[in-house]
Structure formats: structure tokens, C-alpha cells
Design brief:
single chain; mainly alpha; disordered N terminus
């Protein structure tokens, strides 16, 4: 599972990542979601140093607002379950504080890749679990498992590359696109029918949330997330070369048990070579961030 956090405005100060007890939020109205889905477009920022092209127009078949609301509900449920199992680590845990400091540096650069990110309520949580895994759901709901930090012994720069990568999936709306391409378009059609008075919205949010848990991204999605995540992290003053050392560690660990992250994030020499090619493109961004 790889889903990839809240800025009120694009020019606001670095946000505080909340630790509020998870709770379900009301699903946006179908009409508002449909309008927002049509109006919002994830474009490549003019100043981008990496080349990932334009997002697929197919994603608009699944309304963004409804998908984000469903992800928020699913995330709240997951965090509640983790809390009940005493697996949700508290806000004062050093690793939780570490991850939230990373998010505070990276999140301000997110709206350049997707204007909707200014509306997201970003959350970062850490779950006690030996699996090597992390994700960011649509709408900015991030979670790391302790296994990915402990087993790979990640530096801050390497952990920031993972966070940037997961955020990039959400910013590039890969889940929305995958669902449209994999037959979830019927959900969009149901929403359209509801707008026309031809049907009821029903359990669309629940259906979307269920699909999010089993969604897998394509190789092109993974490549995009690598590059956008690399640029996000570089702009946040994290060393670009850490993207290469991260995937070298992933590759070395690929034969181990419990590496569920690698089932959706295949490592390999091609991935590492592509990152090595793009590191020089964002090196100037990193150096500028260090000076600022």
C-alpha cells in the first residue's frame, strides 16, 4: 500500500502537524466534490526541475473531494484501531516528533504541485509495526511504520525522501487516476447520476476507502513519485543524494521478510540510475534551501 499530508493558504507559515484523536469527518456533498474535481488540475509547476509531464485527465472521472473524504475516514479508522491496540505512538515520542518536523519543512512546497493541497488537513502518525511500510492517502494523511525507520536505519535525509515520495503520490493524484483506470469510473458515474437526481450517493465513501487499501501504483506512477519526492525534499534542504542511498538500502533489504513496502515499490538498478540522473537537477534547489 502506498498512498501518499494542511495548509490553509499557499503563503501561510509552516503548519503545525496535528496529533488530534482521529475522528471521522463528514463527506463533502456530491455537487461540491464534482465541481472541485472539474476545477482542480494537478499541473507541473513552471519552476520544476524534474520532468514528469502532465497528470492524466482520466483522474477527473473520480471526484477529488469524495476521494479525499473517503481517505480521511479510512485513515481515522486505521489510526483508531492502532490506538486501541496501543500501536499508535504518542506525540511526544522522539520518532513521531522527528517525522512531524520533516513534514513541517516539506508541506509548504506541496501546493506548487497541486493547488488542492492548500485545503488538505495534513496529519503524520507513526504506528508500531515491524513492516517496512509508509503511505500518504489522498488529502495528506501520512503514516509510517516503525519497521521502515528501524530496519533500514534511515537518516533524516533518507526518511525525508520516503515522505516526499509518498506525498508525491497524493499530489499527483495517482490513486484517483488508478481508480479511474481500473474500473472505479462507475463511482464517478454514480455521483453524476446523483447530481441529476437519478440515484443516491449511498456508500460511495466507504467503497472508495475500501479500494484505497488494495490499490497498487504503476511503474510510471512510482517513477513520478520518486522524482517529485526528490524535488520536494531538495527544496526542504534534504540532501538529494539520499534518494540514491535510500534505494540502495531498499535493494539490499529486498530479500528480507515483512518488506511490504517493496511489493508496491520495487527496487532495482534502473530506479537507482534514474535518481542518480536527476540528483544534479535539484542540487541547486538543495543548496539554495540551505542558504535560506
Amino acid at each position: 500500500m502506498c498512498f501518499i499530508c494542511d495548509l490553509r493558504t499557499a503563503s501561510s507559515a509552516i503548519p503545525s502537524i496535528p496529533v488530534a484523536t482521529p475522528r471521522a469527518q463528514p463527506v463533502w456533498s456530491a455537487r461540491r466534490a464534482f465541481v472541485l474535481a472539474g476545477a482542480a488540475a494537478a499541473v507541473v509547476p513552471a519552476a520544476a526541475q524534474v520532468d514528469v509531464g502532465q497528470s492524466s485527465a482520466l483522474r477527473k472521472l473520480v471526484p477529488a473531494g469524495e476521494l479525499e473524504a473517503a481517505a480521511q475516514q479510512q485513515y481515522a479508522q486505521m489510526m483508531s484501531e492502532a490506538q486501541s491496540q496501543k500501536a499508535l505512538l504518542p506525540a511526544n515520542h522522539p520518532q513521531v516528533q522527528r517525522l512531524r518536523r520533516m513534514a513541517q519543512r516539506i508541506v509548504p512546497h506541496a501546493p506548487a504541485w497541486n493547488a488542492r493541497a492548500t485545503q488538505w488537513k495534513w496529519e503524520v502518525n507513526l504506528i508500531q509495526n515491524p513492516q517496512v511500510n509508509a503511505f500518504c492517502m489522498p488529502g495528506g494523511k501520512i503514516a509510517f511504520y516503525t519497521g521502515i525507520l528501524d530496519k533500514l536505519k534511515l537518516s533524516d535525509d533518507e526518511a525525508a525522501m520516503i515522505m516526499g515520495h509518498e506525498m508525491a503520490h497524493a499530489l499527483r493524484e495517482h490513486a484517483r487516476e488508478r481508480m479511474a483506470k481500473s474500473g472505479a469510473t462507475s463511482l464517478g458515474l454514480r455521483l453524476g447520476a446523483q447530481l441529476l437526481g437519478l440515484g443516491e450517493l449511498g456508500n460511495v465513501a466507504a467503497d472508495l476507502g475500501t479500494q484505497l487499501l488494495s490499490l497498487k501504483f504503476s511503474r510510471s506512477d512510482e517513477s513520478e513519485a520518486d522524482l517529485v519526492g526528490l524535488e520536494l525534499a531538495a527544496r526542504s534542504a534534504y540532501k538529494p543524494q539520499a534518494s540514491v542511498s535510500l534505494w540502495e538500502k531498499m535493494s539490499a533489504a529486498s530479500g528480507g521478510a515483512g518488506l511490504s513496502f517493496l511489493s508496491t515499490h520495487p527496487s532495482g538498478p534502473n530506479r537507482i540510475r534514474e535518481l542518480q540522473t536527476n540528483v544534479p537537477k535539484v542540487q541547486g534547489l538543495y543548496e539554495a534551501a540551505l542558504r535560506s
